[in-house]
Specification:
Elements: E1 5-10, H1 11-15, E2 20-22, H2 33-50, E3 66-75, E4 82-86, H3 88-103, H4 108-118, E5 119-122, E6 125-128, H5 136-147, H6 158-177, H7 182-193, E7 194-201, H8 204-215, H9 223-234, H10 238-255, H11 262-275, H12 290-304, H13 314-339, H14 347-354, H15 360-365, H16 374-397, H17 404-418, H18 423-435, H19 453-470, H20 477-481, E8 488-492, H21 508-515, E9 521-525, H22 526-532, H23 537-544, H24 549-552, H25 563-571, H26 584-601, H27 606-611
Helix pairs in contact: 2-6, 3-4, 3-5, 3-6, 5-6, 9-12, 10-13, 11-12, 11-13, 14-16, 16-18, 19-26
């Protein structure tokens, strides 16, 4: 093997003026939401530990570093590119973060510096530093994201669809975690202080040897592996050790059916839910505490906290695996299963997963005890999931963030409050906590804006499904939220034609705000929007009658042909009525109606109902 070099480089040093290609065996970009969340959470947590609102860009030079890991490259034999043998997922993800920063920074000089890390131009043609000439879909996707153009993922390559989904995740996560003032400073820190080790092999064959060695014979042990080894080593009885090893293996095999690293995710959720008693203070340079350390080095944390975990004597270590780990693994597996499929009596877990609320798992585990039977544990999970459902929907309606970094501190305290409590006790504690949160309708009217389209679609799906099922119909919620060719989309009752409404609005900006209020929105099939979306309200009204009950309710025949719907609105005292025309006052009326529905769907009384 010829000389192999390993150099620590910043993001700027790694990407400035260089072109990277990807070898055929790992062309696809496969990161899922979980990996992006972990990356953004790690980056923003590290950055905010140094950042202060008074800091200037020059202050970033004194911030600490963050190590992102190694990448393996070799020189292409055909051109000046470096071939990425290992590290494409991280470099693609970092490029997506850089694109988001580029689009959210106004200073032209700073934008130019970021642009150099993303692409370069030659003779007026732009090419990207991560170059994929054999995947035109991917090039088109990167160009659209960089230029701020809309692009559909349908019919595109798997990598393209995944890149679009992960960029949406990045946009949401960074918008929530980084204030506008901090964005330029975060961009400088990312470029200058985030480091990787570039392992450069002289030849591709050598690079593959390094890759195989790191991912086969010499791959570092994971924290889960190290925790297993430590616990088994402390189990002195040979029989107990053998049985514990088999239990551990069966737990990991079951967990990893949900994806890579799911064993670590479960262990983190379990340990946090039952044992974390402290978390990092919300100030610069604060030290990581229980909750934070379990997230990054749970194997060390367990070793340092043996007494608190009751780990005294060989039998206790065996019990920790055979009883505790097995129980919480099975509970976690059940949660993950119902998070992917609507399940009777545990629907809120599915709803929260659709909202990408990953903090729900340690919260759901917190009240559970290994002595609980399935009925008891389901009741506890149902109560906690219902609380989360109400909480995060209220926050979305009030334009408040539900991202990990914003919610983590409050949810840590909730987790401690409900730890090992009964379902009834949890319901009482969580009802009190909801009393301290803003209710629906407080603040400005809820509406669609640039970053909440996914949340609006979800809430419309819940409201639409509620009206349908309460009127005697069957649930079609999963149809409403499904993606794909036949998906449902947000329909504006008013088409985007200001001139049709100029008599009610002196400025187009006022029309746009009113048009985007949730009372002026419906959820309808994409084919409807394509065929009728641009028509006037009066022209669309007859077509609305052929759709779901929320859309039908605009038409007069809905009030004569649907006795189940009529009973529903009388029983709930709801302000439904037919609207032959749809003026500004009618939209305001619908806004209040949707608010009534939201207060019914996400009523705190559901906590007590969830107990049984």
């Amino acid at each position: 093997m010829k000389e192999t070099q390993g150099l620590t480089k910043t993001i700027r040093e790694l990407l400035s003026g260089k072109k990277y290609g990807v070898d055929f065996f790992q062309r696809e970009y496969k990161w899922e939401q979980k990996q992006i969340e972990e990356l953004i959470q790690d980056l923003t947590a590290k950055f905010t530990s140094f950042y202060s609102a008074e800091d200037t860009p020059q202050k970033v030079s004194s911030y600490g570093h963050y190590f992102l890991g190694p990448i393996i490259v070799s020189q292409s034999q055909h051109d000046e590119k470096l071939l990425i043998i290992d590290g494409q997922q991280r470099l693609t993800s970092i490029t997506l973060v850089l694109i988001w920063l580029y689009r959210n920074i106004e200073d032209p000089d700073h934008k130019g510096q970021l642009a150099n890390l993303i692409n370069s131009q030659s003779y007026g043609v732009r090419s990207y530093n991560l170059d994929f000439p054999e995947d035109p879909d991917r090039i088109e996707c990167m160009e659209a994201l960089y230029s701020g153009k809309d692009i559909e993922g349908n019919g595109k390559s798997p990598s393209t669809r995944n890149i679009l989904a992960r960029y949406d995740d990045i946009k949401q996560l960074l918008s929530d975690a980084i204030t506008p003032h901090a964005i330029p400073l975060f961009a400088y820190w990312l470029a200058e202080k985030v480091q990787l080790v570039e392992i450069r092999a002289a030849e591709a064959e050598d690079a593959y040897t390094i890759f195989e060695t790191m991912n086969d014979r010499g791959m570092p042990l994971t924290p889960a592996d190290m925790l297993k080894g430590y616990l088994l080593a402390k189990t002195e009885d040979e029989y107990l050790r053998s049985k514990s090893s088999k239990v551990w293996k069966s737990c990991v095999e079951e967990l990893n059916t949900f994806g890579k690293d799911e064993d670590a995710a479960c262990i983190k959720a379990w340990l946090r839910s039952q044992y974390a008693n402290s978390t990092r203070e919300r100030k610069a340079n604060a030290e990581p505490r229980d909750f934070d350390r379990i997230g990054t080095e749970f194997h060390r944390w367990v070793k340092e906290n043996e007494p608190a975990l009751g780990l005294i004597g060989s039998q206790k270590y065996a019990d920790f695996i055979q009883t505790d780990m097995m129980y919480y693994t099975k509970a976690y597996v059940r949660m993950r299963s119902v998070a992917t499929q609507l399940t009777h009596s545990l629907e809120p877990i599915f709803y929260n997963a659709l909202q990408k609320y990953t903090l729900q798992y340690p919260l759901l585990l917190a009240p559970l005890l290994p002595t609980d039977n399935e009925k008891t544990s389901d009741a506890k999970m149902r109560v906690v999931a219902t609380y989360i459902d109400i909480l995060i929907t209220r926050r979305i309606w009030s334009f408040r963030s539900i991202d990990y970094s914003t919610m983590q501190y409050a949810m840590f305290n909730v987790m401690k409050d409900i730890r090992r409590h009964s379902a009834g006790e949890c319901a009482d504690l969580l009802a009190k906590r909801l009393g301290d949160e803003p209710d629906f309708g407080e603040g400005e009217p809820f509406r669609l804006h640039g970053t909440n389209r996914r949340a609006i679609k979800y809430i419309l799906a819940r409201i639409t499904d509620y009206v349908e099922t309460q009127s005697g119909g069957t649930s079609r919620f999963t149809e409403y939220v499904a993606e794909g060719k036949n998906r449902y989309e947000i329909e504006h009752i008013w088409a985007d034609h200001y001139e049709r409404h100029a008599q009610e609005f002196s400025q187009k900006s006022d029309f746009d705000v009113q048009r985007n209020r949730i009372g002026g929105l419906l959820l309808l099939p994409k084919t409807f929007n394509a065929s009728y979306g641009d028509l006037s309200y009066e022209e669309k009204l007859e077509q609305y009658f052929g759709q779901n009950m929320l859309a039908k309710s605009l038409h007069s025949r809905c009030y004569t042909n649907h006795p189940g719907f009529s009973r529903f609105i009388v029983d709930r005292n709801l302000a439904f009525r037919p609207l032959p025309i749809f003026l500004s006052c009618d939209l305001e009326e619908r806004q209040k109606l949707y608010l009534q529905l939201a207060k019914l769907i996400w009523n705190p009384s559901r906590l007590q109902e969830a107990v049984t």
